[in-house]
Amino acid sequence: MKKVNLSDAEWKIMNLLWESAPRTMMQITNALKAETGWTKHTVMSFLKRMEEKGALHYEEGEKARLYYPDLKKEEAVFKETEDFLDRVFQGRMGMMLNTMVQQRALSREEVAELYKILEQAEEGFES
Predict the structure, then answer these.
(1) DSSP 38
(2) Which residue, 4, 15, 80, 84, is most buried by CB atoms nearer than 10 A?
(3) What whole-number distance in Å separates Cα of residue 16 and Cα of residue 27?
(4) Is the pLDDT reported for residue 10 higher than 70?
(5) Cβ partners under 8 Å of residue 89, min gap 6
(6) Domains, the chain, ranges and CATH?
(7) What three-state secondary structure class fits 33?
(8) CA angle 42, 19, 57 (to 5 degrees)
(9) 22 preceded by a cis bond (ω within 30 of 0)
(10) 0.85 exceeded by the pTM?
(11) What region does 55 belong to: left with phi over 0, alpha with psi -120 to 50, or beta?
């Protein structure tokens, strides 16, 4: 698994590429302009930095470079989650869930979803 740390801005670009790739720099700029106000120069800077990190690559297209993700979304999400847990909760999922319960940050639906996830995990240990 690649170890690439993504900034919040880079996550926005990666989510676009995971949704639909390839994309040109202008397609990325146009897709994020309303939300971020980024210019093409800002997006170009992000793309160059992300390429250097190994998060994406480009191929020359007919009129513009075509950008592709080099990270799998599942791997990036797992790493980000793992880093967050280590940084904030000393790597302990139980501590995070306890905090969420104490702060009443979970809806009934989310609690039910957690039960299902835990039941599936438990079944995996039995087989």
Answers:
(1) -
(2) 4
(3) 10
(4) yes
(5) 95, 96, 99
(6) 8-69 (1.10.10.10), 73-126 (1.10.4040)
(7) helix
(8) 55
(9) yes
(10) no
(11) alpha
Structure tokens at 47: 């793309």
Distance between CA atoms of residues 116 and 102, nearest Å = 21
Confidence check: pLDDT of 113 > 80: yes
As given in the structure block, the two tokens for residue 85 are 């847990």
Percent above pLDDT 90 for the chain = 78
12-65 confidence digits (pLDDT tens): 999 999 999 999 999 999 999 999 999 999 999 999 999 999 999 999 999 999
> Residues 17, 85: contact at Cβ < 8 Å?
no
C-alpha–C-alpha distance, residues 11 and 14, integer Å: 5
Give the span between the Cα atoms of 93 and 121, in whole angstroms.
Answer: 14
Instruction: Give me the count of residues in the chain.
Output: 127
